[in-house]
Amino acid sequence: MSSKVIQAMYNDDDILMDAVKEVRAANHHIEEVYTPFPVHGLDKAMGLKGTRIAITAFLYGCVGFSFSIWMMNYMMIEQWPQDIGGKPSFTFFQNMPAFVPIMFEMSVFFAAHLMVITFYMRSRLWPFKEAENPDPRTTDDMFVMEVAVDENEQELVSFLENTGTVEIKVTEK
Amino acid sequence: MYTFSSKLKTFSYALMIVGILGVAYGFFTTPSSVEDVKVMLQESHDTHGEVATAHDSDAHLDDSNSHDSAHSDDTHAEHVYHLLKNKPWSALYVALFFFFIISLGTLAFYAIQHASQAGWPVVLFRVMEAITAYLPIGGILLFVFFVLSSLHLNHLFVWMDPEVVAHDELIQNKTGYLNVPFFLIRAAIYMAGWIWYRQHSRKLTLAQDNATDLSNYTKLFKRSAAFLVFFLVTESMMSWDWIMSLDPHWFSTLFGWYLFASMIVSAITTIALVSIYLKGKGYLEFVNNSHLHDLAKFMFGFSIFWTYLWFSQFMLIWYANIPEEVTYFVTRFNDYKIPFLGMLVLNFVFPLLVLMNSDYKRVNWFIVTTGIVILIGHYVDIFVMIMPATVGDQWYFGISEISSALLVLGIFIYVVFNALSKAPLLAKGSPFIKESEHFHY
């Protein structure tokens, strides 16, 4: 189903923030905002739900932590015990202090990498993907707000013109 | 303006009185002679039977190898007698030192905020200044303690005893640094520098409140940067002098940092607790939960930093396994297992799990609960830094320990809240005051 959207361009993040608040206050639906850089507080102004990526980071960290325990136990205790510096290497527990840096690094490694992969998948980003932004200038110095047209197109355009926009375009999507 | 409520004042007096009675009791109940200790040991042997005997022969293996057993009993009793004599002194030292470093850590944190020209903490400056008001009093108390130690009223610092030094070649080599006059001179220099900066910065921020230009502010910025240089050197040396020299054979090169981590996390926790208390009483209306969120982030971060240093110190010594180094941890694992490993739970695992979630850092009772746990944990940390060297295996949390902490806590509360009532709670002259008041995250 195709729907009509209005793309309003802004050249300043402060003006954009005020515009987002105004548009939401007037009960219009903002489809998406494209910005060249992350704008602090924009997610709250748009009324987006808080990100859950922190929870996944914690869980991935736990996976990395467990994996490192299993890995060090397999490598250093079961498969090929090595006597390093006269330390008894026959139980995991007695060697545990030496494994702590590895547990730490593995937790960070898993949390960081899997979190980035999750983020890409969640935002539907993959290699050779075509860009979704409606105007190439949003990667440079322009901010675009997409507002859905529901009933009166003309009224909405004139409303948006008063929010400090520099350019307005109406397109099918 | 804050008024020191009579309820809190009475509470601090009560803490001081209970504390002083307990401390006095601790001093009067130490055994008065070696004979008393022998009787005491005999009794404990009788009641505990084999466990106690096995334990004693373990701890004094060297003695029993070289001497006949009767002689060994005598030297053992004398040893225990000295350790028990040290116990009330050590308990007092732990408490004095702990509250002193809370105040000193707050001063360092405060200087960092000025030197980095941070905007957000301006509304908390008066709270920090009040906590550092304890610095002069705590410093004098500690200095008096060191003078009493140097007069041989206690034997916490074994290198102060010429009898010990005469038979100890390792300490003899260190007498150029570890001698009583130089020790006291160093202590006086550290304290003079810290207290001078504290009084000076307080004067400047108060003057800035009613100033029309920024001259006080720029002066404070420069003095704070200079103070931080002085502080980082003296703090490290202070940790060698006041803590590490209790074990004069042992040394660790990151000890200064390790103590600093303990100091700064306790200090930030105390700032957060005092702020939440004042907010609960209806003051500090300009402090919002974003400020508390930032303090809680620091509590979380520095707790991990402390663990990192604790582990770095431990792992290198454990791995290298050099006899003169590992004795430090062997004593702690053998005689102090519960406080030594328990503090890792209090100082690391608990804050890590409770304060990890961003939303929890804004909830007052989460901050207060974690804060109290962190303070107890770092008190135990200081306890385990000092006690093994001074009372060895004769430690327990008794009346001396608890009442010393209560006594100094009473003085601390009185001085801090008295200082809070002396000046407006908002440092309104700072150029960043608007930024701080509207701080949100």
From TrEMBL, chain A:
Residue ranges crossing the lipid bilayer per the database entry: 53-76, 96-120
Alphabetical UniProt keywords: Membrane, Transmembrane, Transmembrane helix
PANTHER family reported for this sequence: LIPOPROTEIN-RELATED, QUINOL:CYTOCHROME C OXIDOREDUCTASE MEMBRANE PROTEIN
Identification of the protein by name: DUF3341 domain-containing protein
Source organism phylogeny: Bacteria, Pseudomonadati, Bacteroidota, Flavobacteriia, Flavobacteriales
UniProtKB/TrEMBL annotation, chain B:
First and last residue of the signal peptide: none
The organism's place on the tree of life at top rank: Bacteria
The entry's keywords: Membrane, Transmembrane, Transmembrane helix
Transmembrane domains' residue ranges: 12-28, 91-112, 133-157, 177-197, 225-243, 255-278, 298-318, 338-356, 363-389, 395-417
Protein name: Quinol:cytochrome C oxidoreductase
Organism from which the protein derives: Gramella jeungdoensis
